[in-house]
Amino acid sequence: MNSETNRMADQDFETRTRFAEAARYALMRRLAPVIRHNMAGSLQPIAMVAGMLERRLQKPDSDPEALLKNARDIVALSKEAAASCVDLMSWFAPKDDPLVAVGTGITQCLAMVATELSFKGFSIENRAEQADGQLPLSALRNAFTAAVLALTDAAAAPRNILVEAEPSGDGLSIRITLKNTLAAASMPAGKPYRKIGWGDVEALAGESARLSHTEDEAVLHFQSAVEAAESSRKDLMTAGQA
Fold first, then answer.
1. Who is most buried in 57, 60, 90, 231, counting CB within 10 A?
2. Residue 241 is inside which H or E element, if any?
3. 23-64: per-residue pLDDT in tens?
4. In terms of domains, do 68 and 166 share one?
5. Would you give the DSSP letter of residue 242?
6. Is residue 94 part of a domain?
7. Do 84 and 110 lie in a common domain?
8. What is the rounded CA–CA span in Å between residue 106 and residue 141?
9. Predicted confidence (pLDDT) at residue 14 exceeds the cutoff of 70
10. Collapsed DSSP state (helix, strand, coil) of residue 178
11. What does the alpha-carbon distance between residue 35 and residue 120 come to, in Å, rounded to a whole number?
12. 54 and 112: one domain?
């Protein structure tokens, strides 16, 4: 009896793990264009300074100080671009799961979806920038970002998106609400990889958050930072084993 129970528990665990992996793949496919664009943007200044340096080197009376400044600029910009690209790649393959200030994490996640949503005619009002507390970065990047996309994907028309965060019980709740209807976007948005559904959000939330939602609102209740960090660590380990 115990062996049968354990076998069923293992199967259930594997099923939930695969659902979470599929949901995360869909989320990353949705974010990939923005990540690619941001990577290219971080490299563009290097190309501009390198072009300037090349033109100066072709002049017979080049100023050595100006050349040295351009070379130093390229070194500094290269370091910044490398750091930016490493951070962007951590969306795909995080090496660790640090705690991050809630307001900072929410702002970072909203920045990743702002362009797509603006093309669709949505606007974002972030009232969580000064929110107290910390949460694992992966919990926000996965569950919160997916919740924003799920809510807007299901909306029949562009809306104003209001994001708020407040202490709740032994943890913290993040509320995403669709407010007044806005005019349709003047430019047609590109077709996404696929819509994000509430099943995806629940799979990505895992043990780190509880989800409740209606047509116009989604609420993610996260545990305390310590408990959420432990749950996120388990989710990351599970994802790595899948």
1. 231
2. helix 225-241
3. 999 999 999 999 999 999 999 999 999 998 899 888 888 888
4. no
5. -
6. no
7. no
8. 8
9. yes
10. strand
11. 19
12. no
SS3 call for 187? coil
Q: Is residue 217 part of a domain?
A: yes
Q: What is the pLDDT of residue 208?
A: 86
Tens digits of per-residue pLDDT, 122-176? 999 999 998 888 999 999 999 999 999 999 999 988 999 999 999 887 889 999 9
Phi-psi region of 133 (alpha: psi -120 to 50; beta: other; left: phi over 0): left
Tell me, rounded to whole angstroms, the distance of Cα 68 from its chain centroid.
38
In the chain, the number of structural domains is 2
Question: pLDDT class for 9, splitting at 50, 70, 90?
Answer: low
Which strands sit side by side in the sheet containing 209-213, from one edge to the other? 123-126, 159-168, 171-181, 217-222, 209-213
In 3-state terms, the chain is what percent helix, strand and coil (to 5)? 60, 15, 25
